[in-house]
Predict the structure of Transport permease protein.
Amino acid sequence: MTPRVTLAIAVRVLTQLRRDHRTLAMLLVLPCLLQVLLWWIFNGSPLVFDRIGPALLAIFPFFVMFLVTSITTLRERSSGTLERLFTMPMGRLDFLCGYALAFGAVAAVQAALAVSVTLGLLDLHISGPAVLLGVVGVADAVLGTALGLFVSAFARTEFQAVQFLPAVVVPQILLCGLLVPRDALPAFLEAVAGVLPLSYAVDAMQQLAATTATGQVWRDVGIVAAFALGALALGAATLRRRTD
């Protein structure tokens, strides 16, 4: 991997996003709007919003980044752009890390906006430091980006990329502890949830909501980051240089 090439890829992606106002709005505004909608739904039950609001601060960035990244990468391949890029002195890891760096920068802005809206306007109550909510949100968004880059290698059309949502994203949402505490799941499902990265992001958010202790939060962030790095490595191993 060459840092100069990786940075050039990241700048290219950010330039494209700046020109694509609809995608940029989806990345930055949609998580905030979903949080507002959730607050509105539970307007008469603020305790319910306080319970699930932190978890959804982890889930929404993961979901949105996975969807946008997988489709964007597939569009690069189907249009022939990816094949032209690989005629230059650029490695697979340069491409993937450049995308992860660009979307990671967007994720930082996304997390700052979502946390500001949720804590400021929607009055979500948490015990831990607010800045750690943003850190977990960024880590989770980068995880969604990495998984989106990985699964895009196995899709041939944008529709096929979307089909990975129920296979990769939905099971993690169902088992992460949002609907039912993980320790209340059947033993097999609890074991499966323990190897899914979104579970640790939700654990970190719930820990911040309940206590001021941050040791467990940093451990969970490290696990999420390790999953993201693993997904990038797998993506580099499976990324095709040529368009079929």
User: Anything to note?
Assistant: The chain is about 80% helix and 0% strand. The chain has a mean pLDDT of 84. The two ends are 25 Å apart (CA to CA). The CA atoms of residues 39 and 49 lie 6 Å apart.
